[in-house]
Design a protein that fits this description.
The protein has one domain: Nonspecific Lipid-transfer Protein, Chain A (2-Layer Sandwich), CATH 3.30.1050. The protein is globular. Helix 1 crosses helix 6. It contains six helices and five strands; from the N terminus they run H-H-E-E-E-E-H-H-E-H-H. Helices cover about 35% and strands about 25% of the residues. By secondary structure, the protein is of the alpha+beta class. A hairpin with a 2-residue loop joins strand 1 and strand 2.
Length: about 140
């Protein structure tokens, strides 16, 4: 993992991001779903930023607070409070899925949506791994 700064501890998200590659790369179903996916996704969590580099469905790198102008294929942008609500152990209806936040315009997705939409079940599984990681 690169970067000196870390994501502010938003309900244990730092630990979740550290554990994410092991969880995703050890999940045969997710790897099969993402076996042809090669992309870089940027997660903007409040003022912090994280790049996920995906190579053939494997999370090859998680880079915290990358450079001033990080390069990513697409970005998912939300306030820290949105991510806290999404990552709750048992979120209420409407906070269970990032697309629900998108529908209410509490979250933005920008860039090339093809790697996200073409591998939607893969991404939903990746984000489920973020929620399931113990704090």
């Amino acid at each position: 993992m690169g970067g000196v700064s870390r994501v502010a501890d938003l309900g244990g998200i730092e630990a979740r991001l550290v554990a994410l590659p092991e969880r995703v790369n050890g999940d045969a179903v997710l790897l099969r779903r993402g076996r042809h996916l090669n992309t870089i996704c940027q997660l903007d969590i409040g003022d912090a930023s994280v790049l996920l580099r995906i190579s053939d469905g494997h999370i090859a790198e998680v880079r915290h607070n990358p450079s001033v102008m990080p390069s990513a294929d697409f970005a998912i942008i939300g306030k820290a409070a949105i991510w806290r609500r999404f990552l709750a152990a048992d979120p209420p209806p409407g906070d269970h899925d990032l697309f629900a936040f998108l529908k209410r315009r509490e979250l933005r997705i920008v860039g090339d949506l093809h790697p996200l939409m073409s591998y939607l079940l893969y991404w939903k599984g990746v984000f489920a791994c973020l929620r399931d990681v113990p704090r």
